[in-house]
Structures are given as C-alpha cells and as structure tokens.
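Board notes (copied after class):
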Amino acid sequence: MSGAKIKICGLFRPCDAQSVNDAMPDYAGFVFDDRSRRYVAPQQAHRLREAICPGIVTVGVFVDAPQERIAALYRAQVIGVVQLHGGEGDGDIARLREALCGVEIWQAYKIRSAADRRAAEQSTADRVLLDSGSGSGRRFDWSLIEGFARPFVLAGGLTPETIPEAIARLHPDVVDISSGVESGGVKDPGKMLSAVAAARGP
C-alpha cells in the first residue's frame, strides 16, 4: 500500500485544533453550512485556523453559498481550499477562479450510479470528492469507482480500520474522514491519530 493524503473534516471545538496538530493530517475541514451539527461560524473558523499548524491546509466546505462569503474566507486565509458540496456547476467554478487567483476547488459528487461517476470524471474542479451523500457517514458501492479516471478524494463511511482497504483497492489521492474519527459526536484524538497512521501506511 502506497498511502494517501488525509483530510479530517468537521472541526468545530477549540480543543479540536490541538488534536489535529497532534495528528498532523494533510488537510483539516471546516463546515460552513449552518444546517450541519459541525457548523462553524466564520469568526470561530478564524480562531481555529490561527491555532492549527500552518503546515495543515484548511478546507472550507460550502453548500450553495454566496461567492462573496467564500471569497472573504479565502482572502482572509481562513481556508486554503474551497470544497463545493451543493448544486454548484462549472459556471460557479469558473467565477470563483476568476475572483480568487490560484484557488484550489474541490467538487463533491454523490456516487449512486455509473452516470454519477461519468459526471464526476468530467468536472472542471481541481479535484472531485466522491461520497455517499452530505455528511451521511455511510459507505457507497466502491465498485462504481474502480479505475476512476482522475485523482479524487474518497469520503463516506471511512474509519481508521477501513482506510487501508480503501487505499489498496481504489487508490484515492486523498481520504476524507469525519464521523469515523468521532466518539459521542465529537472528534476523538486517539481515532484521529489512528486514521492518519492508516492513511500514510507502514
């Protein structure tokens, strides 16, 4: 197993910053959708970003958010990557690129069929994130994405125990984990350490 990069998503408590610094994933995610129980307000995310190691890239997760809101967080260096999780299309991606020079954009796709796979493979985003649904914490049918034609982020139901199988079978560029490193609905420092170790391999 060659390993993959890892994103730990859904940080929202002040103590999560220390836990993520101890684990040192490649990416840490902030959810800016106020319908999520992991929602962080912009001011809260700014404080978390200041406490997180500069070597960890922060990703902002947005669901059909106004471009101005995304741009403000990116320009303030609260986030380094924009992850689109709603109904955004190629036009939205183009407008963000025009407004934010050099921005890296990820676009999420729910994978339920071969048609979903084809749509994801044709996205104009820098990376696509393949998932079972917004924050569902469930694994989708991995056979639908075997031999996927471009680098991708794998999400949906991952745990420290299933990450090695996912990497060996699917070869994702990044694995994205949230509920799989939680206990009682909050981030578990021990599980975060285990997930990062599992992603990077022996």
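Comment from the instructor: DSSP finds seven helices and ten strands in the chain. Residues 5-200 form a domain with the TIM Barrel fold (CATH 3.20.20.70).
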